[in-house]
Amino acid sequence: MKLMQRREVWLPTAWGWALVLVLIAMLGATFVRGLYPWLAVSDPVGAQVLVVEGWLGPRQLDEAITRYRSGRYGRVITTGGPLHAWPPSLAQATYAERAAEYLKMRGVPATAVPSPITPQDRTYYSALMVREWAQRAGMAVDAIDVVSEGPHARRSRLLYERAFGPQVRIGVLATRPADYDPAAWWRSSTGAREVWDQATGLAWLQIFRR
After folding, report:
1. So what's the architecture of 41-178 in CATH?
2. pTM for the full model?
3. Mean pLDDT, the chain, integer
4. Which of 9-23, 126-140, 195-209 has the highest mean pLDDT?
């Protein structure tokens, strides 16, 4: 009975290893450059309802206004929870109400649909609040376009799809981030952190929260 045997093993030469490293670098560069466009998807479905995530900044809200005016939206809804978890403001101000006020001051009729404080799944709960609001209003919704910021867009679409189910078509419109260049997001600590957070968050949703 033999316990050991001799085998021939093929290994790359120095030039072979160099070629392998070059290929890995090329694949890595392709992945890095393609990650942001993949996350920041813009794919509207021609809905009449436009949902604007209320945590967006003024520049992104201005983009939402442009989208509204260039589309055929009959209703605009803003979402988001309280601006401050503690201490609560006297007016109980929310991101949804703040964004709605911003849009109204610029001629866009918007309805605020606030959501409660939640430590996680904020986008998902915002989607649930929109669904419940539509049900209470007796409004039949078969399609929604969601305005989100940059790399958060694909994640927002997934969460709205889960909240509304397959009977409602969900589109998404990604706005341009205000704090970094999306074409070179890896050169900014803010961009790198945001893109990485959204990529890992999306992967976590797909793996652990199906």
Report:
1. 3-Layer(aba) Sandwich (3.40)
2. 0.86
3. 90
4. 126-140
Position 80, amino acid: G
> How is the chain classified by DSSP, letter by letter?
--S----------HHHHHHHHHHHHHHHHHHHHHHHHHHS--B----SEEEEETT--HHHHHHHHHHHHHTT-SEEEEEE-BS-SSSPPTT--BHHHHHHHHHHTTT--EEEEE----SS-HHHHHHHHHHHHHHHTT---SEEEEEEEGGGHHHHHHHHHHHH-TTSEEEEEEEPPSSS-GGGGGGSHHHHHHHHHHHHHHHHHHHH--
d(CA 83, CA 98): 9
Query: Chain-centre distance of CA 24, in angstroms?
Result: 29
- Report the distance separating Cα 83 and Cα 95, nearest Å: 6
CB 180 within 8 A of CB 154: no
Report the C-alpha gap between 78 and 50 in whole angstroms: 9
Structure tokens at 16: 């072979």
Is the pLDDT score of 65 beyond 70?
Answer: yes
Quick one: which of 121, 43, 47, 34 has its CA closest to 81?
121
Side by side, the strands of the sheet bearing 75-80 are 110-114, 75-80, 49-53, 143-149, 169-175
